[in-house]
């Protein structure tokens, strides 16, 4: 599905109609979108629409909600008549985190839910670029919203470790995550703690720092829910 201007405009119109309040138009638009979502390229068109700054806010918000539900419906579907093409899956995983971190809060929340859904099945074996990408954002960004959004994403992705029975596969996944994340995690936690304890932060920045620390602690808990990794034991 090649995304041209006409198709993008039609997609935006259909999404707007799903929240316009006209029940007949909502039903028709929903049916058209459900038919289109099984076609190759549909998810990429949605992400492109969410990236566009010229799109009306109602269409962008409706698109974010639809993307989340589209991922929930189609990501794990295999075989004819449904699912998401392999090339589209790779492209979605390549772009979703950076797009989420740049998006307005209402859109960010929906993209985060979609990212979480993908990570449940694909991280880390089928999504090995995610951890390095998160680490890179945490190492290089000076933007608190990016730091907080990235750490909250890590916290969300690592939650899957809490609900699994101990196994060799689980231990292997946690070890991979700990090795790739531990030093950056400690650096972010230490820097945020020092800023808070140093005093002088205005209320809005203080709240952001506590939200960052909360996500950092959540990620820490998920990573030692089975065993306390040696790195964390040495740095406590």
Report the biggest beta sheet as strand number plus sense, adding barrel if it closes: none
CA radius of gyration = 20 Å
Helix count from the secondary structure assignment: 11
Mean pLDDT: 92
Shape summary: globular
Helix content: over 70%
Beta-strand content: under 5%
Question: Could you list some keywords that capture this structure?
Answer:
single chain; mainly alpha; 236 residues; 11 helices
Describe the protein's topology:
Layout: H1 5-17, H2 23-36, H3 42-51, H4 57-74, H5 86-102, H6 105-122, H7 130-140, H8 144-158, H9 168-198, H10 203-223, H11 230-234
Helix pairs in contact: 1-2, 1-4, 3-4, 3-5, 4-6, 5-6, 5-8, 7-8, 7-9, 8-10, 9-10
Structure description:
With 236 residues, the protein is an all-alpha fold. 73% of the residues lie in helices and 0% in strands. The protein has eleven helices and no strands. The protein has helices at 5-17, 23-36, 42-51, 57-74, 86-102, 105-122, 130-140, 144-158, 168-198, 203-223, 230-234. Helix 5 (86-102) packs antiparallel against helix 6 (105-122). The chain is globular, with a radius of gyration of 20 Å. The chain starts with a helix and ends with a helix. 28% of the residues are buried. The mean pLDDT is 92.
Quick overview of this protein structure:
About 75% of the residues lie in helices and about 0% in strands.
């Amino acid at each position: 599905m090649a995304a041209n201007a006409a198709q993008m405009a039609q997609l935006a119109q259909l999404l707007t109609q799903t929240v316009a309040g006209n029940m007949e138009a909502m039903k028709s638009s929903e049916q058209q979108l459900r038919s289109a979502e099984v076609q190759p390229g549909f998810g990429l068109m949605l992400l492109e629409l969410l990236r566009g700054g010229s799109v009306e806010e109602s269409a962008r918000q409706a698109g974010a909600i639809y993307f989340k539900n589209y991922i929930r419906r189609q990501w794990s579907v295999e075989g004819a008549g449904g699912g998401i093409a392999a090339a589209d899956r790779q492209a979605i995983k390549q772009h979703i985190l950076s797009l989420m971190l740049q998006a307005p809060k209402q859109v960010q929340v929906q993209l985060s839910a979609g990212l979480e859904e993908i990570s449940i099945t694909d991280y880390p074996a089928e999504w090995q670029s995610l951890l390095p990408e998160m680490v890179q954002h945490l190492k290089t960004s000076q933007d608190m919203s990016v730091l907080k959004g990235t750490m909250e994403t890590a916290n969300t992705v690592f939650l899957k470790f809490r609900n699994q029975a101990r196994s060799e596969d689980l231990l292997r996944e946690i070890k991979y995550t700990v090795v790739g994340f531990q030093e950056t995690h400690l650096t972010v936690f230490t820097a945020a703690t020092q800023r808070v304890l140093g005093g002088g932060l205005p209320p809005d920045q203080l709240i952001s720092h506590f939200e960052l620390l909360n996500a950092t602690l959540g990620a820490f808990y998920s990573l030692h829910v089975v065993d306390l990794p040696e790195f964390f034991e040495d740095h406590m």
